[in-house]
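sorry for the late reply, my laptop died twice this morning and i had to redo everyting from scratch. anyway the thing you sent over, i finally got around to it. pasting the sequence first so we're on the same page, its 371 residues, then the predicted structure underneath. double check i copied it right bc i was rushing
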Amino acid sequence: MSQYLTEALELAERGWGATSPNPAVGAVVVREGEVVGRGYHTWAGVRHAEVIALEEAGERARGATMFVTLEPCSHQGRTPPCVDSILAAGIRKVIAPIEDPNPKVSGSGFRKLREAGVEVEMEPESRARATTLNEAFLHFMRTGRTLVTLKAAVTLDGKIAAPEDGTPGYTPGWITSDVARAHVQTLRHHHDAILTGIGTVLADDCRLTDRLGMERSRPLLRIVLDSQLRLPPESQLAKSCDGDVLVVTTSAASAERRKRLESMGIRLEVLENKDGRVSFPAVVDLLSREHYLSLMIEAGSRVNWSALEAGIADKIFFYYAAKILGGLYSLPVAGGVGRRRRKDAIQFRNVRLHTIGSDEFAVEAWVEREF
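ok and here's the structure:
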């Protein structure tokens, strides 16, 4: 992998959380072995990475090579096409790892550069990292759907909690360490929305906030599945609402409760199946229409299974602690009815292991689909 493309990828990562619904992009301009311009995109900065790098390079961009993490755009959006800026600056060669699947680009940026006499080179060695960098954007552009990740903290025997309150032996506490929980905050920062069930809110009085304190293009949308509108107005989540809380409910919910929550600035949406339960696919459809590129589910056993059974989860990110809870009453990562036959088990692919901390690791994998 080119050292310059590596630097461009590292620059792009600085924009994580601050670019959605645009991709995170980094660019480096090199002339005679010297980096003369660097740039990365953020939503607030408006200008794209290529333009920022070219502005820093100035006249030194003429005859230089640009290393960029994604195909330069060739269409008019909030800013003029980056391809036009590259041509005007006199760049001689562009090196990138992947095309932009956005239908408005999709190879036209590279084609326009080649037609103008600029050499374009693809670097496959960087493709995997560049794809991971923008997996939510790439997924959205290819499918039109929000990328959904199911996150959980799990013991080695697949449990996420001790027996629920009211059962023998109930003890609250964390499954994973401070190190793993800090990593979760990084994961939250990389997502546009986060979802849980009302059971988790009632049990933990959680806020579901992005606590990294880093720039975001828009607030993390906090979503609660609550068919009966049991969300307490005095809960931390409700009290901290600043236009960033969405409660998904059903037509059976109390009109009085709805009015009270809406008076606190909480957005309510009735999204239900024919059986009167909250519809997971409808939630994802709503987020997709509103261009939320990524959703992370942090919920309890029943909601986790519902997401998997509904087919809306695209991948998992499970944090494992070197512990075993055992017993018949501790909660599995995915409860509900489950699959009755081993051959019907939900399959996963592209499994990756991440070292998190001492005696902890995470498993990241994509749900296997037939299409």
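The radius of gyration is 23 Å.
thats about all i looked at so far, will dig more tmrw
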